[in-house]
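Hi X.,

You mentioned you wanted examples for the new student's onboarding notes, showing what a folding record looks like when two proteins sit in one file. Here is a clean example. The first protein comes first, with its sequence line followed by its structure tokens.
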Amino acid sequence: MNKHILAEISVPMPEDTIGEIVGTYGGRLMLPGNWMAPTWLSLASGVPYLTQNSLLKLWAVTAHERLRLSVALDAFFAVLYQLTIDEYHYLLRECDYPSEAVTNRAFATRLDNRGFWRVDKDKHPEHRHTVLALVAFHDLQKEIAACGGDVEKGIEAFCSQNDGEGWMLPETLRLADYGLGHDERAREHQPVRECFGPRFYDWQLAQTPEESWRECHLHARNLLGEEGYQNLLDELEGKEPVAGDRGSGVGGRGPGAGGRGSVAGGRKVERKGRQQKLFETEDQPLFDD
């Protein structure tokens, strides 16, 4: 993607609380693994309640948990883009046809060739990412309405339900309740949650929060080295870098990260000068004599 195209894209700028929630959900999806330990420490310094949970449980690695968080994120951004339910239905139109129909080439040629109906088309409609995103959006809009139209409070309520676990995939789903579906199955409750297996693997439940975050610190120290690890801790505590240390470069650009000789993970990185010209000119030869 070219920068001039990105510059023209409308991007919502969520408020602090919403941005924190979106960032946390995104981190859980994108940062599973011990090699992300320094980044998790950076996240936890800005979102302290993360350490109340086992880090392993925060990793979205099962199909169930990845779908749940992805669908919730879609609902958040639909709200941040100020879409109405009708507009969101229009964007995801034709996604609720039975799998026998959308996998039939003759039928599929009648559908919008730019539509999202291809996503999970081999699954029952109530198991598709697109349909569950619509359901989550409906549920989120109800929470916002219950909070008097306050989007921030509505999203907080949406994420605080189920003892703080947030919105869950529905146990069963009747598509007709959401104005969806095109066959008799849509008028009956169909199982959803149990079809995606468990939210967590057994090994994700084996550690206490204290044990998991202690191990996270050990992985960060092993990855960064003693000096880099200490630089990270100092940076997270807001301490001024010592002379010659231009920032750890972990979790974003540290102070002076773009300068010469910046520190990245405890290793000195020498920066070259300005980029050389690609083509020779009279006053700027490509190679020295």
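Then the second protein repeats the pattern, sequence line and then tokens:
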Amino acid sequence: MSALSDCTVIIPTRNRAEDVRVTVEKLIEAGLQETPMIVVDDQSDDPDALKAAVSRLPNHRVIRQEKRTGQAQARNVGLRNATTTYCLFLDDDAHIDNGDAMLSFMQQPLDSDIAVWRFETIREYDGYRDGLPADLAAGFIPTFIGFGVLMHRERVLGVGGYRDFFCYRHEEDDLAMRIIRAGYHIRYQPGVRFIHRHSGAARDDAEYAFLSARNIFLLYALNFPLPVAPVYATLKSLSVITKMRSHRGARCVGLLKGWAIFLKRLGQRTPFSRAQLAAFKALRADLNSRIAACTTQ
């Protein structure tokens, strides 16, 4: 039995006690059950089932939200309640595939200018790797996803953590932009693998559509410089609305709501400077070039 050095595993969840139970079993199989774990319960209907799902871990804590807030705030709750330098984020339906590699990674010195490390993530039923090919080399990247990521807790909280009002969808992209704006890096680190079992349980498709259109607007409206920000953000949201036929009404309402939030939160914008935006776009172009050069897609 081992524990990841100076690290807490954080899992946000809602109504997925069985998924959490499987993730806990996988953590035990990987020999990492001594690692502290914080499970943030975003108002599950059966909190006792969730507590039972993690009961085999000796160093776990379940924090139940007083009201449903979404993944963004749940992840912040985990970050703020952890006491370790690093936090490893898992989705409730994802698990570490090679615990030894994760242990080895945590035992080496980690760079002082990196806020987030993203590892390999593989969808269980078809092998999809979330856009990053199997032979992509380690290097800096412009964003990350919600699981299979290691965060330096103080650096991430120092830029404000996740914006709670994003709820979910594009909250990682928003945080990534603010991390890069602050002068930190996000690094892709192959060799440590995470498996996404991809449960569809308890997902509201209409809500997902609404947040997709709303949050992609907010992502660019809050982080790109004026005067282009709201125009570019609107075009990006309209692209989401026109490309996806399902729940188009919810997507249209999402765009309107995005505008309302943007106008209310003008003082909370964290825009790139022109030079920072150019560097960010260059980072995205570099990743696309590296992906195109890979032999596996």
